[in-house]
């Protein structure tokens, strides 16, 4: 569509979007006439604005108001007119210093990275990661009595996960020790998903040197650690920044809904899936993310990878649709790269 606009329409459209991003308010023809610095009357500008509105790029929030970009218009701007800037040396050093310092677990590093993004962007910083995707260090089964067991998993980055499960009937104490030894002998720095695939294949082919009851315990433990479908780790900082936008204050119900979704992690697994579908930074504007609570907000996220070059999570920001995309896109991209280097 950008090719269908002539130079005048393109420039007026760009000025409307940039002015809206600065102020958050509808942009009128007189304001544009002053910004353009050209011999274009407000009447001529209004004619172009009407054409842009007919194309679905602009809309008027109410009669006699100025114009605002639609979600389609913002997408066109981001894809076709956005000039991405560069981070300042101070911003790079800040992110490197906060995210790259040693001696901390991965969860602590991700928490600091999220806080750093929130502070620099003045938005909500967010990390979404698949649970239990770090390399495994140790797994142990514990009998809790009463037919209940506990499976404990420790990852290479120091994270511990505990899950209670029902023990198979007639399970002796010795089987728990045997299952523990069997699993730990086959971890070899694999992630849970990688270990599960290899171990279940071995059990299915009857090559495992364990009895049927212990094999059943191993399968139960792996299934328990797998958790619920869509289970994710979510870190959010800077929720209060979402209330600083003038438009958000006028639509507190939308912000409340977004807060509820973040608190319950609703839809966050879907956000991880969407970000994994392509390399590099992804920008979701409004309803594009197909996450109910994010309607009216924008999400800028980038995936980060582990040492096997596998995407294990995404990091980014959530804010109003009038984000300063030119500044935030490189900021998110750089933070994801720093986190990736730290993991590797």
Give structural notes:
The protein has helices spanning 7-23, 29-36, 42-54, 71-80, 89-99, 106-121, 173-184, 192-204, 212-226, 246-250, 252-264, 268-276, 325-343; strands spanning 58-59, 68-69, 124-130, 136-145, 148-155, 160-166, 232-237, 282-285, 297-305, 311-320. By secondary structure, it is α+β, with helices and mostly antiparallel strands. The chain has three domains: 2-80, Arc Repressor Mutant, subunit A; 89-131 and 231-343, GAF domain (Beta-Lactamase, 2-Layer Sandwich), CATH 3.30.450; 136-226, Enolase-like, domain 1 (2-Layer Sandwich), CATH 3.30.390. It has a five-stranded antiparallel beta sheet, with helices on both faces. A hairpin with a 5-residue loop joins strand 9 (297-305) and strand 10 (311-320).
Q: Percentage of helical residues?
A: 40-55%
- Class computed from helices, strands and strand pairing: alpha+beta
Q: Look at the structure and give the mean pLDDT.
A: 82
What's the count of strands?
10
- The Cα radius of gyration reads 26 Å
Q: Largest sheet, described in full?
A: 5 strands, antiparallel
CATH superfamily of the largest domain: GAF domain
């Amino acid at each position: 569509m950008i090719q269908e606009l002539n130079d005048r329409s393109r420039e007026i459209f760009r000025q409307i979007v940039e002015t809206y991003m600065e102020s958050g308010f509808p942009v009128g023809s007189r304001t544009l006439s002053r910004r353009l610095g050209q011999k274009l009357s407000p009447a001529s500008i209004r004619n172009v604005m009407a054409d842009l509105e007919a194309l679905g790029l602009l809309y008027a929030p109410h009669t006699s108001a100025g114009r605002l970009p639609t979600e389609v218009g913002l997408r066109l701007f981001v894809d076709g007119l956005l000039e991405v800037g560069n981070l300042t040396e101070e911003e790079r050093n800040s992110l490197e210093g906060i995210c790259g310092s040693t001696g901390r677990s991965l969860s602590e590093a991700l928490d600091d990275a999220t806080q750093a993004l929130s502070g620099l962007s003045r938005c909500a910083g967010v990390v979404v990661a698949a649970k239990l995707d770090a390399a495994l260090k140790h797994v142990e089964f514990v009998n809790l009595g009463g037919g209940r067991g506990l499976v404990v998993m420790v990852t290479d980055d120091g994270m511990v996960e505990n899950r209670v499960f029902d023990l198979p009937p007639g399970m002796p104490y010795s089987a728990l020790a045997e299952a523990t030894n069997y699993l730990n002998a086959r971890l070899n720095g694999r992630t849970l998903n990688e270990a599960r695939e290899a171990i279940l294949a071995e059990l299915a082919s009857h090559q495992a040197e364990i009895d049927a009851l212990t094999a059943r315990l191993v399968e139960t433990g792996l299934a328990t650690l797998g958790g619920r479908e869509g289970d994710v780790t979510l870190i959010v900082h800077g929720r209060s920044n979402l209330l600083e936008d003038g438009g958000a204050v006028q639509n507190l119900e939308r912000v409340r809904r977004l807060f509820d979704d973040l608190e319950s992690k609703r839809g966050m697994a879907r956000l991880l899936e969407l970000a994994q579908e392509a390399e590099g930074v992804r920008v979701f504007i409004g309803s594009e993310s197909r996450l109910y609570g994010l309607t009216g907000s924008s999400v800028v996220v980038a995936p980060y990878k582990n040492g096997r070059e596998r995407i294990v999570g995404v990091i980014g920001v959530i804010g109003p649709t009038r984000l300063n995309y030119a500044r935030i896109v490189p900021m998110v991209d750089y933070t994801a790269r720093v986190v990736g280097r730290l993991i590797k």
